[in-house]
Amino acid sequence: MKVYTETVVHSAPEAYVGDAPYQIAIVIRDDGSRVTGRIAGEHAAIGDEVEPAGTRDGLPYFKKTGGGKA
Amino acid sequence: MRPVAVIGLGKTPFGAFPDRDLRSLAVEAGRKCLEDGHLRAPQVEAFYLGNFAGPSFTGQNHLAPFVGAGLGLAGIPCTRVENACASGGSAFFHAWTAVAAGVYDLVLVAGVEKMTSQPTPRVAEILASAGDVEGEMRAGATFPALFAMIARRHMHDFGTRREDLAAVSVKNHANGARNPYAHMRKVITLDQALAGRPVAEPLTLYDCSLVSDGAAAVLLAPIERAAEFTDRHVRVAACAQTSDSVALDEKEDITTFPAVKRAAQKAYAMAGLTAGDIQFAELHDCFTIAEIIATEDLGFVRRGEGGAYASEGCTLPTGPRPVNASGGLKSKGHPVGATGVAQICDVSMQIRGDAGPIQLERNEIGLAQNLGGSGATAVVTILLKP
Question: Among B49, B86, B146, B302, whose CB has the most other CB atoms within 10 angstroms?
Fold first, then answer.
């Protein structure tokens, strides 16, 4: 799965003020469909490979595969 | 379909008005419009009200007859139209179709939003409902975050720079500073724009339009009757409304708004014009990147070159094709439901030669583009000097 686009949110909605700043991304799954989710851990850039990293209250998380620097 | 004219217009200033409620703003714009068009309220045959979230911001539903009664409209069809930030433009489109089709002769369109009486987090939550609430907003997206992701991808695909976004902000602030109707009248420098507080990277406070109160109204009539009411009507050469998916993650390529491209194609075809004929425009700069992409989607500049187009001064009031001489949503303000109608007012005022301190020289063929959400609704209108 690849990062199609992303941003780091500083001005968060009320429910997530405690999380800010956090990174969200639109991720392209292997079947071509897309999903909006959170990036866990290391900052991900457009084109980076990511993998699912669980969910929190139905909110999908993704993290860079391999973990180490490209 | 018969040709339609704008025969009257009226606006309130945009800003934060704690002592003004939604109805009083809409009534002020409507009354100014009727006066401008030399019409009495009982002569109006139908009323369309563009409003995004009056029920959420003020608790009042059933807004079109509510405002209509305040204006003294006499038992006519009163309908509220909602399409997020394109509510005003959509109301205008439907009013235009009714007059063009010969269903009514004299139609009033107004747009209004009262936003500043709610605290900021509540405003953000209400604005977020213009996106896909379950899909993208629950992930923690905000409206600025959606456009930040659009900007990121545009920068990745085309090399658009933060300086290009900032150039749009500097221009629109400078234009708004000369506009007596504008919410924010403050000149800024490129360095100030670049150093703004980050909202969602790469967008800063200076890339985001304002939360404002305000209203605007226009009167439509068939061209053949315009002279009964005014000696300075403006011809509606074309109006097109289109749609696309609401969720950003359902779009193939987020660096363009297909709804805008299609609305533009339909409008140019209807008017018998091309992009090159458009002399000036009021475009939907909810965020600076949206203005850049709009100039590409409308064919003012090639795909991907909107950033350079802005940075090179092509959209300045002194440039070859001025964009947002009013200050745009960035500086004029963005009372959501009012915006689309205010754009029609602003283009019409330019054409009539009564834009005052922001009057452009080349003012015969103007375009207004109103965008809903992150591209789910687009309305493109072309107005001409008769």
Answer: B86
